[in-house]
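[recover] target loaded
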């Protein structure tokens, strides 16, 4: 049942000393606590294999808060209250005997247990089974798991089966942190609360859609993970497909989790497939070489720590795809994402069609289309590019494009934009699954990614090199230029 206020819970955090926990989860939980959104008796148990005691664990969390929370948001009373909630158990997650300590901590507490698995997906099954075997769970226990779930459809099914033996689907929260981003939430409001857009949201009015998720970072010491995954599995199979689904889905009948997820699944099923013939034309894979970002030299992918010089793993993907249904027939969706790009930028651009009859200066005809720009990061906001008359007596009826702009930071200056993990953790506690990915969504997304990998394998072409600090291989620009279009550039 979805709750309006956050109930008390026992949160067992597996992988308590890992990157995700330190960089994202403690700062998010601290913010929730500071904003009065953690119930008074909620407790957090850190679980990891480091041989430290609870005091040393709290010290580590305190240090991480100092590093990742803005100084102005660190208040000593809030920090103390938050640290007092924390405890620590040293545990090898494969050792079922060690789970006795979790059972003893939770038994009789009266708070439902929420288990957060901030660990590699390969051990999700073992942890779930050990929790059950040790009697550490209760009838309301929930599990939160991270992406990527598996490496392909088959491995994701194995992992989901293992989770499903212990937790029913209604108590599994699969995180895709892009769904927790403020502007992604706004996408739902924008589309379904504004008749202006609701009536225009189809192939009659929209010519094409662009989704760009550019990262400045490289692989950040994660060679072991990333080289097996590549940008397709790391970013496209999950984050970019989720964004595409939210843009392309039909209106759900209500905001219930399953109503939204049913619509997203329909989009995944309708996504165009690739084959040996079209993959070379419609998809560009790239791998970064050395270059410079903001004046600082950075190594190429094959010179990263732990690298294997023969690797053909892609760090960049651009593609032209389509959603084959009545709403979107003939509307290309251009997707691109890459590491070591000139800046961190995630944005969606909806390009509307031109007016059927044009009466202005023929030289300005290419200007004559509206664009809706939905900026996820860095500066969250929504802009509608419209055409107005250029000012001045000497200009005649010259057109000028300009934005009707909603910048969330300046429109709502007092409201801090919460990190995605704050919202997601809050929804887990309240029992609302609408921002979490259902099993069939994950699996349809893998089916689609698997057929793309198969087409790549048949094509057998190495990724194209691109210098770090560039917008990817030139071929990704040529791909969209061939359609008489260009990537939106107003960075
Ligand atoms: N970091 C990020 O920004 C993101 C991460 N994710 C996902 O979140 C999950 C966690 O990622 P991340 O924090 O980066 O990974 P890390 O490797 O930094 O953390 C995982 C932690 O799990 C611990 N661990 C693994 N196996 C065991 C075991 N048998 N017993 C005890 N501890 C164990 C590791 O301990 P030890 O150090 O001792 O090996 C490590 O501290 C992954 O599924 C990842 O794909 C998803 C999106 C973003
Ligand atoms: O899931 C992941 O996301 C990050 C990018 O997230 P963002 O919120 O900073 O845009 C990416 O760097 C990482 O490789 C991937 O695993």
């Amino acid at each position: 049942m979805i709750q309006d206020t956050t109930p008390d819970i026992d949160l067992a955090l597996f992988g308590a000393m890992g990157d995700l926990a330190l960089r994202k989860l403690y700062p998010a939980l601290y913010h929730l606590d500071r904003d009065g959104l953690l119930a008074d008796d909620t407790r957090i148990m850190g679980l990891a294999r480091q041989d430290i005691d609870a005091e040393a664990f709290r010290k580590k969390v305190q240090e991480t808060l100092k590093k990742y929370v803005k100084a102005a948001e660190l208040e000593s009373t809030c920090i103390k209250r938050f640290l007092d909630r924390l405890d620590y158990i040293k545990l090898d997650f494969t050792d079922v005997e060690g789970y006795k300590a979790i059972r003893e901590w939770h038994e009789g507490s009266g708070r439902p247990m929420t288990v957060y698995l901030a660990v590699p997906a390969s051990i999700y099954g073992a942890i779930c089974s050990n929790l059950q075997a040790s009697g550490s769970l209760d009838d309301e226990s929930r599990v939160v798991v991270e992406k990527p779930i598996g490496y392909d459809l088959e491995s994701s099914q194995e992992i989901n089966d293992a989770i499903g033996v212990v937790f029913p689907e209604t108590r599994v929260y699969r995180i895709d942190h892009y769904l927790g981003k403020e502007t992604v939430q706004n996408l739902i409001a924008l589309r379904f609360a504004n008749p202006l857009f609701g009536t225009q949201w189809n192939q009659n009015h929209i010519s094409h859609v662009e989704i760009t998720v550019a990262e400045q970072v490289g692989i950040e010491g994660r060679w072991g993970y990333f080289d097996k995954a590549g940008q397709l599995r790391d970013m496209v199979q999950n984050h970019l497909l989720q964004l595409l689904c939210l843009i392309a889905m039909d209106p759900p009948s209500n905001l219930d989790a399953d109503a939204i997820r049913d619509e997203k699944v329909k989009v995944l099923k309708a996504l165009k497939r690739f084959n040996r013939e079209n993959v070379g034309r419609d998809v560009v894979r790239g791998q970064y070489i050395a270059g410079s970002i903001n004046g600082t030299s950075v190594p190429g992918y094959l010179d990263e720590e732990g690298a294997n010089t023969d690797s053909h793993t892609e760090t960049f993907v651009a593609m032209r795809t389509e959603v084959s249904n009545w709403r979107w027939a003939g509307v290309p969706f251009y997707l691109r994402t890459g590491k070591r790009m000139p800046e961190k930028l995630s944005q969606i651009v909806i390009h509307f069609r031109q007016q059927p009859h044009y009466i202005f200066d023929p030289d300005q005809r290419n200007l004559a289309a509206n664009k809706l720009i939905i900026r996820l990061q860095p500066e969250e906001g929504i802009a509608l590019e419209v055409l107005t008359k250029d000012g001045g007596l000497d200009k005649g009826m010259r057109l000028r494009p300009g934005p009707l702009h909603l910048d969330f930071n300046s429109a709502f200056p007092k409201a801090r934009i919460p990190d995605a993990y704050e919202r997601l953790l809050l929804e887990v506690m309240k029992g609302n699954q609408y921002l979490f990915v259902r099993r069939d969504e994950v699996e349809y997304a893998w089916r689609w990614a698997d057929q793309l990998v198969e087409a790549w394998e048949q094509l057998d072409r190495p990724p194209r090199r691109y210098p770090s600090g560039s917008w990817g291989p030139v071929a990704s620009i040529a791909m969209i230029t061939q359609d008489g279009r260009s990537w939106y550039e107003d960075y």
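[recover] notes: The CA atoms of residues 380 and 408 lie 6 Å apart.
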